[in-house]
Structures are given as structure tokens and as C-alpha cells.
Specification:
The structure is a homodimer of 138-residue chains. Chain A has 138 residues and is mainly alpha-helical. Chain A is 59% helix and 4% strand. Chain A has a two-stranded antiparallel sheet with strand order 1-2. Chain A binds a DNA duplex (30 and 30 nucleotides) through α2.
DNA sequence: AGAGCAGTTGACGTTAACGTCAGTGTAACG
DNA sequence: CGTTACACTGACGTTAACGTCAACTGCTCT
């Protein structure tokens, strides 16, 4: 009872199927991400089991993709979220990259607001001179 | 005064070089967009001259790209901004698509806010514990 | 034990969005 | 009038991000 090599991680492992269902991706995608070092599930025999860390990372990956970042971009920022990383230099670098990303995202947010306003204005124009009031429920 | 075939569009034409410089894209990109019907510059002989409309569209294209939309996606929404278009059905369709995009963008905005907050929080954590190599499990 | 089925590993195919290059044209410059 | 400089047209190359397919494990159920 002195030894406790793997605490209760056991309960926290997810199969590839469960991952696919939960995040709406294909197995191929997960394996691809693993090959790209974005994820690294543990192996039981040959099969993958994804950890809580993997799930967190996948969430960030998909989020990043929706914002138009490449996997390469994403992989660089992901490390920031690994706070068990004790490599000072490495972490320092991650911080810088993260700050850059943050700036980009804030700029993106500003631009997004403009784009939304534009689009709304354009829709309003159309509505104003609208020919036929459409069956519309919002 | 009834007829006005080509007003003063002449002064409003841009060469491909000027376009590239102004929008920071390559000639190849502009030709590609033309082939994809996203732009249609007038021709003087064989050379392209981009109109004000082209510039407006290019701006929207690049904007869309930054938000992670595909050219295909973008091409569908672009038509909304053409109000000289008198095809009712076509415009109706454009409106629907635009509304969808709007919803997507608003969702994206919400998520972006979350992502920004997350990232800031993560950066704050790193700052707080500074350089002290404290082992910490969550 | 055999059948079925999810999971795994290559290996190759695919699509989007351009890049690159070769050959041709043309307007302008000295 | 030759050369330089940029523009145009195919045509093929490239990269990212997966999809698809074949061949092979183990499991589990009967």
C-alpha cells in the first residue's frame, strides 16, 4: 500500500470512440494530432487512452482552429497550458508566443465587431427596401 | 442626363501592383481570386484593372479569411454586398446565408472572449508564480 | 473455435489555396 | 531599336489537414 504508481488516473481515461463522440472528430483526426505531437494518449497494449490533459488540449486545438489558426500555430501556444513544464526557458518562450497570440486575438475581436456591425448594416439596408417581408422568426 | 453609361469609373481603377501593395497579397492571389469569380477586374488589352467594387470585395475576402472562413464560404456571402443586383431570389438567398454567417460570427465572438479570458488567466498564473520552481499539482 | 467488431498501422489519395516556372506580350526607356 | 521591366497565361508543384483503404491485431460473444 505504500506504492501508488498510478493514482486514480484510471478513472480519467477516455477511449478513442468516446473522444470522437464528445468532440465530434474522427479517429483519423486524433491519430493525426498524436502524430503531430499535439496529443499523447497513453497506450494500453496498442490502444490509445486519452487523458484529461489530452481532452483539455483537444478543446484548445479545436477552439484555435475555429479562429483560423493553423495546427502549427496552435501547437506552439499549447505548451503554455502545461504548467507542469519546469523548463524555464521553454516556458518563457511559450509566454512570449502566447502574448503574441493574445494580441492577435484581441485585434481579431475588434475586427470581428466591425465585421458584425457591417454585416448587420448591410442586412438592414436590404430589409429597409425589402420587397417581400419574409416568414421570419428570430 | 438620362444616360450615364460609364461615369467617372476611369479615375477609380487600380493596377494589379497597386492592389498587391495596398492589400499585401501577391499577383497570383488576385488572379486566383479572379479565376474563382471572387473578383472581376476590367481588362485593358490583356491587363487587369481593379474597380472600387473589387477593392471592397477583396477587403471582405481577406477579412473573412482571418476569421477562418474558406473562399467558398466567403464567395457565398459576398453577393450580399452587391446591391446593384436586382435578382430577387438570388438576393433573398444571399440574405439567408448572411444571417447564418452572422450567427456564426456572433458565436465566434462569444467564444473568442472566452478564449481571450482563458489565455489571460493562464498568463496571469505564470506571472504570479514567477520563476520560483514550485512543484504543484492541481 | 469461429465470427464479428473496434482499434491500429502504413500508404496513398484529396482538397484548398496558393507558389513557381517557362514562355509570350507589350509599354517604356535610353 | 534593343533591352529592361512588369504583366499574362498555362501548367505543374506544394503544404496543411485530413480521408480512404488494406491488412493486421486483439476482444468478446456464442
Amino acid at each position: 500500500m505504500i506504492q501508488d504508481p498510478q493514482p486514480d488516473i484510471q478513472t480519467d481515461l477516455t477511449t478513442i470512440r468516446a473522444m470522437c463522440d464528445a468532440f465530434d472528430v474522427t479517429p483519423r483526426t486524433l491519430r493525426f494530432y498524436e502524430a503531430k505531437k499535439l496529443l499523447n494518449p497513453v497506450r494500453v497494449g496498442t490502444r490509445r487512452l486519452f487523458t484529461r490533459r489530452d481532452r483539455a488540449r483537444l478543446k484548445l486545438i479545436l477552439r484555435g482552429k475555429r479562429f483560423g489558426f493553423s495546427l502549427e500555430d496552435i501547437s506552439q501556444t499549447l505548451d503554455l497550458y502545461d504548467r507542469d513544464r519546469s523548463d524555464a526557458a521553454q516556458r518563457q518562450r511559450a509566454c512570449e508566443i502566447a502574448r503574441e497570440r493574445l494580441a492577435i486575438m484581441e485585434a481579431q475581436r475588434t475586427e470581428l465587431d466591425v465585421a458584425i456591425a457591417d454585416l448587420k448594416a448591410e442586412l438592414a439596408k436590404v430589409d429597409v427596401r425589402g420587397h417581400a417581408p419574409r416568414h421570419e422568426a428570430e
